[in-house]
Amino acid sequence: MSKHTLSAIAEEDLIQIYVEGATSFGLEQARRYHQKLFQVFQFLAENPKAAPIRPQLKTEIRVHPVESHIILYKVRKQDILVLRIRHAHEDWLNH
Question: Looking at residue 94, what is its pLDDT?
Fold first, then answer.
């Protein structure tokens, strides 16, 4: 398994992170961070059990930190499904 899929809401999260990053830190930094996130998606696709399952969540969702964000994902037979990309300081359990 070395494939990842983004949910529609994860795609929206990614766009928001890029726009906020470009506004706050400039386009080049936003691009670098965007690339880093995709590198982590690929790492997780190649190592799907790298992050632990969070038992407090309803389904078998794994959470992996990336700098100031966390990636919430699910392991499927053919790929990993990235569910959300949230800021680590958010109340992401309830959103």
Answer: 61
Domain count, the chain: 1
Cα 95 from Cα 90, distance rounded (Å): 9
The one-letter code for the residue type at 73 is Y
Report the side by side order of strands in the sheet with 80-87: 4-6, 80-87, 69-75, 61-66
CATH code for the domain of 57: 3.30.2310.20
Encode burial over 19-33: b for 16+ CB neighbours within 10 A, e otherwise: eebbeeeeeeebeeb
Q: What is the pTM of this model?
A: 0.88
